[in-house]
Each structure stands twice: as C-alpha cells, then as structure tokens.
Design brief:
CATH superfamily of the largest domain: P-loop containing nucleotide triphosphate hydrolases
Strand content: 25-35%
CATH class of the largest domain: Alpha Beta
Strand order of the largest sheet: 6-7-8-3-9-10
Number of domains: 2
Length: 307
C-alpha cells in the first residue's frame, strides 16, 4: 500500500473542561476519497481545523505529505488545499482575477495552471464574469479551483454540497472523483449527507461524540445482510404454497407478490427450480443489502443525519 498523504494520530482537543476530540486517528492515501462522517457536533469541523492549523492540538500529531504539522508547519500546509464552509472570494473581481490573486501567494502557479483548473471545474464560459454574479454552485467550483491551483497532495472539504442543487452536487462529485482517481489527489470530505457520501467515497471514517467508532470501505459498510432475499413471484398464492412446503420456517414476510426469505444461496437456487416447475413466474430475486445510512445508524446509535 502507498504511503499516507494525510495521517492523524491520537488527536485530542478540549475547550475548558469539555473534551471535544478524544484520540482520533485515521489515514488518507493518494487517489482515494475518504468521507469523515458524524452527527452535527460530533467533532468533524474541530478535527479539520486542527489539521489545517486553525486550532492548536492538545495532544497527538498530524502528518501531511510526510511533514509534521507542528515541526514543519509551512511545508505541511503547502501540500493542502481546502474549502471550509463557503469559499471566500472578491465579489467585485472576476473569477479569473480571484485565481490570479490567490496564485500570487503560491509558488510555481502560472497562467497555464490557472487555465487548466478552470477547465477542470467547468468554469470556462463564466470565468471572466464578476463573482458577485455567480450562483452558489459556481462559487463552489471557483473555490475548488482555488483550492487545487497550487497542486496540493491533499484536498480537504467541509460540507461541500451545502446549498447545492442536485445538478451542482453531481458535478462536484464527478470533479472530485476525477481529481482522486485520475490525478492521484487524496480527498478528505466531511459531511453528514450519507446518501451522497455513499456515491462519492471509497472509504469512510465515522466519528461520534469526538471518538472514531469505525473506519471501513463503503463496500464493507454496505455488505449484504446475511441470507435475506426478496423474491417477486406470480401468482402469489401458488408461490406461497410452494414456499410453505419447501421451507415453511424461512418466510419472513409477504407483501403482495414480494416474499422475504432467509436462506443460503444454494437453497434459493433449489427453491427457484421448484417454483418454476410449479408454474410460478420469477420476476425478481434480490439479495437484501444495507445502505450507508443503515450501517451508520447501527454504529452510532442514531444521530442528526440528512438523507
């Protein structure tokens, strides 16, 4: 496995006597999108601010591109791009002028690179218009261009889809996947919109009450619910007769023509053969799977989530 581009080890943070972050650890690798999930108030934004140097770390360490955030602060932070809440822009300047202003604060950013990121985020047609005329989605795209113009190794986004319509969300998702999977950027996304994170992320790190409770791939969290199948069968009365004869204790529920059965895969194959022999039509066989939301609710015991 490649070396992590972002590593948090044993982070702790308190405000007064209140412990906000308790021993948080995770790693982000090149070319992946890691979702940082948790209810509102779980410590997501506090963790991000510690990574970015906006808050001191009480205990633990953050390493970015091999540099310790405390010991090599400037080198470490030069390898990060980020959008925290809404990106700050000069509304009276064009999008292009905003990027030029930001580029002057970074080394090695020329016009060719600015043009490249403008194309990447899809702002070619409006980049020379004043930012005050931009929609929220366009401002998010410009903020993303600003965050990656200096070729960082890590991109950090805090609730990047807030306020975006479905089209804007999909466009942002496509760009982030391209940046990670095609250009090798490590993307760290904090959100509580679970349906979007399921479509976007490769792995997720779930935090609850300031503590990491699970880090897994999306496929692991949405794995099949063991031995549950939904079968759509017609006619339902004849199907019920076959099921009660073949496996009377396995039928969990019936809703019209949909039967939920617990069985091994081979048992389902044998049942289907008997149903067909009995003249029952098979119109659907689905192995029941979890959504990320269902796994999240099991892990955290519930929380403030947005579907």
């Amino acid at each position: 496995m490649s070396t992590a581009v972002l590593k948090a080890e044993g982070l702790h943070k308190s405000f007064g006597r209140k412990k906000i972050i308790n021993n948080v650890s995770f790693e982000l690798y090149p070319g992946e999108i890691l979702g940082f999930l948790g209810p509102n108030g779980s410590g997501k934004t506090t963790t991000i601010k510690m990574i970015l140097g906006l808050l001191d770390i009480d205990e633990g360490r953050v390493e970015i591109g091999g540099y310790d955030r405390n010991k090599d602060f400037e080198k470490a932070l030069s390898l990060i791009g980020g959008i925290i809440e809404n990106p700050d822009m000069y509304g009276y300047l064009s999008g292009y002028k905003n990027l030029e202003v930001f580029a002057r604060m970074r080394n090695g950013v020329d016009r060719q690179r600015i043009d490249e990121v403008v194309r990447l985020v899809g702002l070619e047609k409006r980049i020379h218009n004043k930012v005050r005329t931009y929609s929220l989605g366009m401002k998010q795209r410009l903020g993303l261009a600003q965050a990656i113009v200096h070729r960082p190794k890590v991109l950090i986004l805090d609730e990047p889809t807030n306020g975006l319509d479905p089209t804007g969300i999909k466009e942002l998702r496509d760009v982030l996947k391209f940046l990670a999977h095609e250009q090798g950027l490590g993307v760290f996304v904090s959100s509580h919109i679970l349906s979007e994170m399921q479509m976007l992320c490769d792995r997720v790190c779930i935090i609850n009450k300031g503590t990491v409770v699970r880090t897994s791939s999306i496929s692991e969290l949405t794995e099949s619910v063991q031995n549950y199948y939904n079968l759509t069968l017609r006619p339902a009365d004849k199907a019920l007769e076959v099921i009660n004869t073949r496996m009377p204790d396995r039928l969990q529920s019936q809703e019209g023509e949909v039967f939920t059965i617990t069985a091994e895969e081979q048992e389902i194959n044998d049942l289907i053969k008997e149903l067909v022999t009995a003249g029952v039509g098979i119109f659907g066989v689905n192995h029941v799977t979890k959504t990320l939301e269902e796994s999240y609710m099991e892990i955290t015991g519930g929380g403030n989530v947005v579907e």
